[in-house]
Every structure is written in structure tokens, then in C-alpha cells.
Amino acid sequence: MGFSQERTTHHFLLASDGGTIQVTANAADDRTTIEQVHRHLEQIARAFRAGDFTTPASVHGQVPPGVPAMQQLRVEISYAYQSRPDGASVVIRSRNPEAIAAVQEFLRFQIREHKTGDPVR
Q1: Looking at 54-58, 75-79, 91-95, which range is the least confident one?
Q2: pLDDT per residue over 21-67, tens digit each?
Q3: What are phi and psi of 26, to 5 degrees?
Q4: Of 89, 118, 93, whose CA–CA distance to 103 is shortest?
Q5: How many Å apart are CA 20 and CA 2, to the nearest integer?
Q6: Residue 17 · residue 103 · CB < 8 Å
């Protein structure tokens, strides 16, 4: 991923119109990790917009659930990179119910795999 898993915290947050991938540095003064998170999530937003989910597939050793539909419906989904002082987020939104369901299936998989404890409903 380009940054230490031990120096960051991941969250995968569901929303009625999609959800958010959020990564923050555990230490507010860890500028190196924060910059690495910024670069990584900027890259993820660009890749997902293009229908490229290579990174999550390689991290998890499988194509995550929801990805095929997200690729098929990619023009129905927006991926907005947002910088944060302590890291970054990718906000994923859609108005298409099938796309929203796929995004949430993908995020629920991430919640389970990363053991974040984020709500799955």
C-alpha cells in the first residue's frame, strides 16, 4: 500500500448513497506516513474511477465482492479524494441502487478483512 499498516488506522464507512474509505496516521506528527496515505488514496481514487481494482485484489488475494458490479456501473459511481490533516479519504457515491449495493458489499468486505469494527449496516 505504500505505508505502514501499524502506523495507520483504516475505516470503511457506509452511507445511504455509498460510503467512504478513510486512512489516518496514528500519530498526528507523522508527516511521512500522512504524505504516503495522501499519495496512496489519490491513486486509489483515480484507479477506481477507471474501473481498476488491482490494488484491493492483490492485497486480499481475490477480487473483493462488489467489484465486478462497480466496474460494470463505474459511470454511475463517483470517487472523490479528500485530504485530511491526519490522512485522507475516498468518498464513494452513487444514485443508482445497484451501484450503491455493490459499493457497500465492497466496503463490508473491507471491514471484515481489515477487522476495523466499523458498522456494517
Answers
A1: 54-58
A2: 999 999 999 999 999 999 999 999 999 999 999 988 777 687 889 99
A3: -70, -25
A4: 93
A5: 20
A6: no
Within 13 Å, how many C-alpha atoms sit on residue 73's CB side?
20
Q: Which residue has the cell 507523522?
A: 30
The closest alpha carbon to 63, from 50, 73, 54, 74, belongs to 54
How far apart are the C-alpha atoms of 64 and 49, rounded to whole Å? 16
How many other C-beta atoms can be found within 10 angstroms of the C-beta atom of residue 104?
A: 21
- Residue pair 23/37 in contact by the 8 Å Cβ criterion: yes
Backbone conformation region of residue 66, classed left if phi is above 0, alpha if psi is from -120 to 50, else beta = left
* Number of C-beta neighbours around residue 111 at 10 A: 20
